[in-house]
Batch of 4 targets.
Target 1
Amino acid sequence: MIQIKDLHKSYHMGSNSLHVLKGINFDVKEGELVSIMGSSGSGKSTLLNILGMLDEADEGQYILDNVPIKNLNEKIAAKYRNEFLGFIFQSFNLINYKSALDNVSMPLYYKGVKRKERTERAMHYLEKVGLAQWSHHLPSELSGGQKQRVAIARALASDPKVLLADEPTGALDTKTSYEVMELIQGINDEGKTILIVTHEDDIAHMTKRIVNLKDGLIIDDSPVEQIRASAHV
Amino acid sequence: MFDLERWQEIFETLSKNKLRTFLTGLSVASGIFILVILLGFSEGISNGVKSQFEQDATNKISVWTGVTTKSYKGLNPGRYVQLKNSSFDAIDNQYGDYFEYRTKDYMIWGGAVTFKNESGNYRVRGTMPDNQFIENADIGSGRFINQSDINESKKVAVIGNKVKTDIFKGEDPINQNIQVFGMNFKVVGVFYDPGGDREEGQVYIPLSTAQKVFNQGENIRNMAFTVKMADNFDEAVKRSNAIALGVEQKIKEIHTVAPDDLSAVRVNNTLEQAEKIYSLVATIRAVFWFVGIGTIIAGIVGVGNIMLIIVKERTKEIGIRKALGALPMSIVGMILQEAIFVTMFSGLFGLILGLGLLELVGPQIESDFIKYPQVDFNIAITTVFLLVFAGAIAGFIPAYRAAKIKPIVALRDE
């Protein structure tokens, strides 16, 4: 599903240049649930942003679902993001003046789905994350866990190939974190490819494979015995 | 632009950000409103002044005399300068070719005028036939003084409409006899004057008759002329000024008055005054335009400012939308369409409010100097579109910049 070869990325701040990714190589197959770990500054978020086409690599190859991702202009990047990717953020990033339902239907709006169908599909995903009765609430009226579940429903709404989650449990307490992870595991069980950036061990061990990053290089990449989150809830 | 889905999205955004929408709308609506009111009143002032000048012919030169204040050629100051028929003839001989109408008057201010048992004090004025045109008098019934009245010194009178209503009490005055200082005069006409009651409270009689019955011999009180209009206004003013100066010098020469004596002979040139007033009106209008355009510019800057803040405030939202697959142009389009819709709607609202107020309050204004305040609708609608256009430009720049921001940067914005 994802193939990455020799990926480099530097940031330039004035005269200083910061080499964040120093040659990353890894593949993700369809249906995998991968966590990317590393201390802060290891480059894990940068890697995820490049995977998410929110940022561009300086060097190297990135192939997503057999489509080489390079020399993207804004238009194509927007199209690919909409078609291939679903995002889950640490700070949820819901639009605060829109109801849960409208937030979830947003990617469908940009896909050009008609209003009626949009609402139906968004409702379906809200049901899936267990928030059907909260559909008309604003994000400010929801708890952290509920917000993240709305965000997950939104990420799923356009039926993307890959879900990218940047510290999805970073702003949540342990119990809520496990509830969110249970949901993510369930989605993975249905065959969706998911990448999670995290620095929490327990969360990482709820995935099927841990990629460890240090100073812009992969130092360890090994499958793990998946711990079911439901056991902890 | 005409995508229904897009409009739904925009209405939703606007209705969920009511304060922001309201403030943007307010700055636009008040700008247009103030402009409309200002332009309306400048038009009103110009109408008012014009109607003031309609009282008399605008190209009138009139000559009045008073008492000398300077000794000249052995004559003492304090001497009354008495105009005569001959003074009038001298002027008419010299400048007659330039004159359209000419008159000489002898008048008595509180003349007792009686019809049957009703009486009142009115200005009784001996005059010439041309005075009808110099005073812009309108004959309501009958006729004005004519040349044969003058030649034969007939005892006829033309009364103003006020005199008619005051002492005739609804009777038809034509061919009735009125008494002026106890002498019988036959009413031959009734006149109206744009000057209103003040002018209509007069009784005109033939000059020759007036000179006889008031024992004035050849004496006249004043004279007035209208100058033939030249093709353009500036030319006319120039000619009329030259004639006025010439007339003044001639009168002073005939009556042995010091050339620098300002109060003995006064020559009044309405055209010159008209020019001054018209240029004053033009200045007022220019000032109002200036203020109005300033208001509009303030409105545009306000809209631009609000758009800038909106974009700044929505940077994160823009990042989210882009992460979800929004095209850069759809972001620009969304913000622009919102800006255009709000400025258009509130601009038209301010326009309608301003026009409505002028329509409502305009007729209530009872001032000599403001009449029928109104606005050229085309100008008003043009300013609305100008404001919308400027608002769109003001919104476009930050929107375009926002759409260019990488989503990752926009998302990091807190």
Target 2
Amino acid sequence: MEGLSNTVQEVFNEPACGKNLAKTDKERKKGCTQALQPGAAAGGCAFDGAKIALQPITDVAHLVHGPIACEGNSWDNRGAKSSGPLLYRTGFTTDINETDVVFGGEKRLFRAVKEILAKYDPPAVFVYQTCVTALIGDDIEALCKAASARFGRPVIPINAPGFVGSKNLGNKLAGEALLEYVIGTEEPAYTTPYDINIIGEYNLAGELWQVKPLLTELGIRVLSCLSGDARYHEVASSHRARAAMMVCSKAMINVARKMEERYGIPFFEGSFYGVSDMSEALREIARLLVARGAPGDLEDRTETLVAREEARAWSRLAAYRPRLQGKRVLLITGGVKSWSVVAALQEIGIEIVGTSVKKSTKEDKERIQKIMGDEAHMIEDMTPREMYKLLKDARADIMLSGGRSQFVALKAKVPWLDINQERHHAYAGYDGMVALVHEIDKALSNPIWGQVRRPAPWAAEGVS
Amino acid sequence: MSAPAAVFDHAPAPAAKACTVNPLKMSQPLGAALAYLGIAGSMPVLHGSQGCTAFGLVLFVRHFRESIPLQTTAMNEVTTILGGGDNIEKALLNIHKRAKPALIGIASTGLTETKGDDVAGDLRRIRAAHPELDMPIVYTSTPDYIGAFQDGWAKAVTGIIESLARPGTTVKGQVNILPGSHLTPGDVAELRDIVADFGLHPIVLPDLAGSLDGHVPDDFSPTSLGGTTVADIGRIGASEATIAIGEQMRHAAEVLTGKTGVPAKVFDRLTGLLAADDLFAYLSALSGRPVPEKYRRQRSQLVDAMLDAHFFFGGRRVAIGAEPDLLWTLGAWLKDMGCTLAAAVTTTDSPMLANLAACGARLGDLEDLEAEARDCDLLITHSHGRQAAQRLGIPLLRMGLPIFDRLGAGARIIVGYRGTRDLTFEVGNIFLAHGHELRPDDGTPGAAGGGCGGGSGAAPACAGACRDHHSITEA
């Protein structure tokens, strides 16, 4: 556990994090998330975060060491897509019983690894620590080392038991495990001057595939994505990339920074959401690759592609303007997604009546301010009751949020669109932005709203 | 996972494996939380790390397609080691302040049980220090590493009875219904209506039909949207009788009898002609009224459905993965209809397993079920069976919890004459759609597949049917 708490402290000290730098030493020690309030908390644990970050590696066996709750209550519940192997969707757990709790679960874990290798033959097994097995002192790091030696196959400890903190911390601890045990342990078959890593992209609903064809057209190769639609070998040899893009807010900033330090891979923070952000991302990738020695025409070719794709996207989006102009959107989501989508929605005449900034950094907020002007309604924290009231009073025409608040909107009889990780539609890249607007239009124009808002016949006389 | 040896005298348990693959089982605290959600205005709390609650929340939200009130004591590394009393206190005060629930139901988790928190002691201290906490607080010990979902449900119902039931002067016609966790909100509503149609006055505990039936309330509520009222729970000791559904509820019913003297009758299942007959005969005797005409007609309709459907059921091989009482309900009914229960996997020990042991029923996971279901015509389990069904190329009937990739999970009814008839049609239609039709080359030696289950030689003849399978099983 001491090793783990050192890692946690190190992650809290992330020097590349703008939000972190603004803190005092004391604040920093407390960590990057607000203290959890018993009885008023929401959100996942560190284990959840680690699993979110790594499970998209498709050919790895993800083995959860703990009681049935941690895997049994949650497996196969995310939308990360694979273009090949499906092993990542198989749920593996030691499902420890009372005897294991008393006598320790290490023997069962060792046998579990052996069974998985025999039956499924994956290139690697990731072993996730959980609260109970951490508390009884199962040493998964030592055990994974022994299992790797015995079976001649990487067995990787992911030491992020739920009770060490939030989902975000779990993301980072998962990144630490990759840095410590995976990245740099293999070599790619070949390299090119156009090899990049994409860090913090999980290919939810297949979003990566809305971006990859454009990169391919430019001759850019995604050497490894961390971790959407990734293979173990790609992650292990990702240290040979020439540049990296970090998406999804600050979830894996430690990985991006340390890969820059260790392997000289420069990175930038970008987003695939929204038309101009997508263009910026492509330009920045090209710029970094050229700076590292790729032929200079890459930037020109990128400009040509960006001009073509933007023109196409805007003309497709313009078709929605007459239908969506003046519609009011309440946007409840975390981090970067807010400002990058806001700009594109405004471009076609949609009004943003409020956006959450709970997980946003200071720079995020400044950008929102800039995009939305003085009228920016930045919502730090909104209770479901307040959200319901706002929607019930018809102060927004549609809410865009995560699944958690879905029924707050629907029970208020207000259209709602899922923009978080369980969503079924992909919204990345130029096509994704059009898809998002298309879904907003579909939700708003559905004929049910006129029906479900009509009072029941017996309510007409004022009796309900 | 050690199987209870005594139960399996006909079917020796296979070699225990160390790794559970594709879990069928969910943990006890979630079952307890769902039971608490059947109480009106309630707020369940899991005493554990916040992930325990987050996973449960997502699971229930996806299954019921409803907001789910579920809180956490948000334990971390330090508070776990120091003991969770302070966190419980903070949680109770916060919940009281923000949600004003009519009842708070606490369930422990693997984390706090491993530490060994004395929650009952903590609650006494908190109660003494905070008289403003004026709602009932029920606590259930539900470590994740023991038992399964239905055990947690049964323990929470028992806990509610132990905390809140008291003896009373018998009220003529008042009847308690204790449904097992395998009954949907739709089942519970159907059963309540049946009992009421005999002129009886049912109190259902817990009443998911009141809270999670999927309706649009007039205003926002941070707690459960309906269910058994705390006042009604106070009156269950005055009932004439208790009807418990599923073996899992026997203990709760017995505790209620012990505490209040209300006699109990346990129905092992309510699906199937004869099983439904038992219920209607009992209700008729209890109420002193004849079975209403409506149900006589429904019985006749069920008999007719069985006559029409039996052609398609006879000899079909079915694999089921479900919690013990649901497994028993479906397995026994399918046998009633002439099917063979070819594979049966369940989550936790139960007396009902002995009755199914001849079919090889055992504790296991979906990997076990998939291995044994290779020559089956139908797979029945929750939505996590979708990958297995696709690999096997057989249809999947989603039953149990979670069902996250279909609508209306909570509304399906399989109890009583009408529910059994609906289920007969539903399953019969799957068999009808997936019958094996002869093709010109089926007479060729070695080409006859007999089904699409994965015989390599059958590929050309079955290609069309297999595509149908995929369209059914794919999410």
Target 3
Amino acid sequence: MAFTRDTPTPGVRQRTRLSPAWGFVAPFTVMFLAFYLAPIAYALVDSLFATKSSGLGFGPPQRVFVFLRNYTDALSSPAFQASLGRLFLFCIIEVPLMVATATVLALLLETGKALWPRFFRVVYFMPYGVPGVIATLLWGFLYIPATSPVLQGLKAIGIGLVPLSSTNVLFAIANISLWLYAGYNMIILTAALQSIPTEIYEAARIDGAGEWKLIWLIKLPLIRGSIVLVTLFTVIGTLQLFVEPLVLSPLTTAISSDFTPNMAAYANAFTKNNSSVAAAMAVIVAIIAFAMSYIFLRIVNSKGRQAW
Amino acid sequence: MVTRSTHPGRSWTWSRIGTTSALLVAAVYFLLPIAWVVIAATKSPGDLFGTNGLWLSDTPQLLHNLQRLFTENNSAFVTWVANSVLYSGLGAFVATLLSTACGYGIAKYSFLGKEKLFALILAGVMVPATVIALPLYFLLNTVDLVGTRLSVLLPSMVSPFGVYLARIHSATVPDEVIEAARLDGAGEGRIFALVAAPMMIPAMVTIFLFQFVTIWNNYLLPLVMLSSEKTFPVTLGLTLWNSQTQRDPYFYTLVVTGSAVSMVVLVGLMMGLQRFWKAGMTTGATKG
């Protein structure tokens, strides 16, 4: 090994000059600063101010520093509290449903017992290419008795399901997310399953392990890292809930304009012209996302070996 | 004696029938909306609401629907598709170049603050998109970019996940090759462009695909930024038509046909490039 990276080659690494790495790193970093970090910084600052119309309504409105009042206002508003509650409920429905479905599909496909595994893999992955808006428009038609063959079929056998009623609407939305992303998550998990060396299975079979034991004692523990990853991305995705309820809202009275925190932020920014409250709400969602990711990773990492 | 025990080609067993049936049920679930929309695209508005959703009507009119889809409203749909192709194609192309260079720079050089920068970029993957889109509107408003195509294009050129993938895939470029090129007198930029980048093409295709689909499927950013129909991508255009169904029921058929067409195009693209997806997700699944 004549030229490894740590060999001090003269002329390559001079401490005084700017590292040539910045030529590669700088273009992305500048764009990242402008379109990721700057908006976040802007939201953080904006959320600490409020717009006050001056005195008698003459003259330009003033920006006043109000510190955390936008946050306390948002958090004490019953409508925003309700939207946060709905979001947590949605998380509790969606995350286990998604992770379980993706894991079961991946395990079934990788048993080597199924016919046409490639066909199934392609079919399950297909919805990932469908924009969330279009998927929601489609499922919207399937949630209305006039156009839904499913509801018509259920009615024929005496089941009157109303997917968009206020009790069912969260499940109706969870179904759309499941349909969109279960196949994508399944592919991540099948990739992890395929990276397990087959010798391990053979050794286990010699020891007399059946298919169930293989799953519980070998496959699931070995793809734990990928399951953690899928769970994490699903949690972050569910916290952003916006498009599906927004597009479904004309079809049902069960979805208000502040159904989720993101919808409330959007309404504040563009229909109520209150960007500071909108910023505070957006920051609250981000903090929840970070807190939940952190807590989740702490929990999985404290049990046994580090997953991430 | 235990032989290799993956058993494709073995006789029918109960576990084989059971596994395949379960997968078939799931396949029906995933195919149902797609089958519905393709069938619905052949129907008139009356038949859409009056006939069985999973069966053709007596008077299919797919060609008529397609013709109206492409001509309605001064060919608005064609403009929207072109816009989507522009946003996704150009956005993903630049994003691929930027993140490949950045990931390569982080992988192959040591410099001050390198790991901190990478951690910051990774944190960017975790930030909800809505948290960025709303303030970005107000920021771009101050520089008069809101409403222009650039307001959607520029933010689409940043892919933190792409940097992550590029850093991992830079391992396919051996350090020895880079050192050899240096000894031959090549500059750092030349080495990247002529030696490293060609070796990273599979990774670059993966990054491009991920970003392409992300931009194509994005709804919030164009919704926030754009107001003129001429600049809309397909997603925004179809929801605009969807909001006009009260005025004229024919818009139901236009929305359904438009959804079917844009779905067929993108799903076709994804299927055609399947092996690149898998490459990307395998690395995404292993430890960084």
Target 4
Amino acid sequence: MAIAIVVVLLVIGSVIFHFASPWYFTELASNWGMIDATVDITFWVTGIVFILVNLFMAYSIYKYRHKKGQKAEYEPENKKLEIWLTVITAIGVAAMLAPGLFVWGQFVRPPDNSAIVEAVGQQWHWSYRFPGEDGVMGTVNASLITPDNPFGMNPDDPNGQDDILVSNPEVYLPLNQPIRLNLRSKDVLHNFTVPQFRVKMDLVPGMVTFMWFEPTRLGSFDVLCEELCGIAHHAMRGKVTVVERPEFEAWLNAHPTYAETAARAAGNRDIGQGLYQACAACHGFAGEGRKELNAPKLAGQEGWYMARQIRNYKNKLRGVHPDDIYGQQMAAMAGTLVDDQAIANVIAYIETLPDEPAPVTVTGDADRGARTYETCAVCHGESGQGIWALNAPRLAGMSDWYLAVLLAHFRDGVRGAEPGDFYGAQMAQMAKRLSNEAVINDLVAYINTFPVNSPARVSQAQ
Amino acid sequence: MAYVAIADRDHEQHLHDPQTFITKYIWSQDHKVIAIQYSLTAIFVGLVALVLSGMMRLQLAFPDVFSFIAPIEYYQFITMHGMIMVIYLLTALLLGGFGNYLIPLMCGSRDMVFPFMNMLSYWVYLLSVIILLASFFVPGGPTGAGWTLYPPQAITDGTPGAGWGIMLMLASLAVFIVAFTMGGLNYVTTVLQARCRGMTLMRMPLSVWGIFVATVLGLLAFPALFVSAVMMVFDSLLGTSFFMPAILDRGEQTAFDGGSPILFQHLFWFFGHPEVYIVALPAFGIVSDLISTHARKNIFGYRQMVWAIVVIGGLSFIVWAHHMYVSGMNPYFGFFFATTTLIIAVPTAIKVYNWVLTLWRGDIHLTVPMLFSIGFLFTFIHGGLTGLFLGNVVVDLPLSDTYFVVGHFHMVMGISPIMVVFAAIYHWFPKMTGRMFNQTLGKIHFWLTFLGAYSIYLPMHYLGILGVPRRYYSMGTTDFVPESAQAMNIGITYSAILVGVVQLVFLVNIAWSIFRGEKADPNPWKANSLEWQTPDTPPKHGNWGPDLPVVYRWAYDYNVPGAPEDFIPQNTPPDALHPAGRDHGKAH
């Protein structure tokens, strides 16, 4: 008896939950309204079946619950009823399948006027490539990927020379332009999802997959990876920003072609030495860092990392938060490096400075820190050597007090919180676990145990 | 020499009676003891997986609060939880446990056809469980690749347990498949060759039909998993490239080239989809018998039910790629697989109608097994209907890899089969132990489990529609997930913990009742099928005393007009007081 009432209440409750709960599709931002319509049809058909079958069941339980002297009917089969129910079910299924297949027919064939864009996935970042003026993507090969050629472009392919490379997890797309998004992975499976676009597809290493959509709403939308890709899967984020075409063109033209990146002059250490004099005041003439001036050690840090941070300071992605006093100082100083060439020059000089381990100033329980570091090791390396491919800087032998300050900053939203600082945001998400200063000190104490010239580090330098 | 049915050779059979405590309870070849060994092991390992799910829920509700759940552990927990629940609990319990116990008793056999192999099956299964659990104690811990174990990530460095963990997982699966094959060949052969006189195929209880067809599915599907496990071991240890294209592993070039990650997915789901029915079909069969018995009414449309089981089993082999709509396979496959998948809804819906129509004009006794059976119906209807979303390729696009999927498959192959498992344990407990369980505790267990489980999985569907992805250690900040979703996550976690703790009520009830429960009647539910007609309760070795039973009717002669009682057991010959009922299948 109670069960019959509960079944009825659950049916009513589920229907109320469906209509009253605040959780439903995000506002559509693409042409795929037809997908939403198909979902609605499915909800109506299945909802009606859910209500009818359960209410019939509840009524049967109520009406035919055991009473003294009750007999059940003996009716092994009822061919007519069985055929009737089969036919009705088949019609209901066809009512859902037919529109579904029709819409899928649209999805498998991108329109002829689609613009081609490529999204490249890697653990745990996005980057993008546009075909450039010739409208043809150059060929790529995973075996060609190096720090200087992160897209694995084939240098001999003329089609690839004008390809525009976006080494950033954020991509701009023009409004109302059908996009054929080619998908490629450097390492494992990933999945490109923008919930507001409704469509998604896996990235499969070794092949190029695709999907298409037409952005129909201005705005910025999160890109999520929705295929488990390792321990930072949940932190593999990007952004699609949909803008009017002129703004899109301007954004696109601000990015280098492959030919430009390949021809980019290497940094000049002699010019860099002159530029470095401004840095030396705080960071020291040997780049050794000076704690009393809150300037960390630079010598031995990965060049690509320092270059990105200088750009971040210049682009107001870092040193903006009111609590980041020393970061604000650095942001002002970074302005003295006028362009990418200046940055490359000063980095080239810093790379010549002697890499002496920074003094140990933080103490803690290294054994406990080792447990915490298991997560960090995946990106920063087992001995803190840093891994360029994962956008993770070196930790070993760097200023330990600075690591401790920065970890707290990441955790507390002082660093990595500026929109557009995707790599910082990723670190911020990972640092949320460092619940108190003791945990941070233990972790840094463990990092202090790493040898500076570890074999892993030497091999990578070669 | 002409073939002589095993039932007719009964008197020539030598019964390998157990001699000592060890041969009776440990190295036992008796299908009933093996069934209980299988069940206890499966329930034990299932409790481990239950605890893991509790830890996952703690992290999701209170991100970054528990220091022992870092991303590494979280991904290890989801992987081990999923694999244990699907393979080592549900498959082992429904086939190794219920299959072993019920097939010989319901078919009127003395034992499985190959008792020694049956015993070996259990011990090899136990070995696979030990290998699996050992991965918690090796360097790097168990694999965190997700229960689908997709390469390349399953064997590359960015995934927890990519060394020892994944190897032990693959080894354990291979060993499990060996165990399953030994058991499975036994079940199939026993059903086909060792039924007693009069037990035609179309008189078999639906429990046996469900278990039988599920076993056939398993024997055909598990080899695909076996070879993919072997190939992945080769890729990892020998450097072959079956599943591995040219890739970078944490920035380092690898020597892999030319393999296909999608090949693994095809192999995995060629096993993985039938696996859903390997779990579901025994549950379908068992619940049919339970509903009929406790509603005191014949199962409605028996022949249709049998054919539905067979057709679902057959179709289950041509729908696998509906798990791969967004995998990057040729998108034109979507048309075929969406169509076959939605066709499978028709026989499945027919089964649901027939269960509900069995209640209609019945004499429904709301016993604990009946309550759980109704719980199954409600959750299965829900889970089956949400399957129509995910099976319809274009509807799957926004929902794939979100919490909608998690809600769907937990409802349809987690909660609903578990409802049947509980119903079945309560239903056959008096036969297995000779004692009754405590009804009040049974009802408490039902209500809290049923309502708690629904409140876990219903909201998950809506998180998925919102766009919350599955397999996320934490959501972090997004522009589309509102604060309220986190409140919901906390609510789900409280429900999950409640449901987890409530299982103690079940364990206490079972443990207490085995020793202190009321003595049970040999046929307390007044059921028709043969297992309730044994001369002893619990049945002794050999099951039937000196003579095998003879069957004269199907198992569903409840409330036959003209009969003095509301049930007529299968071994009752037709006479003036016991009308033949529905008896289209004549005894041979």
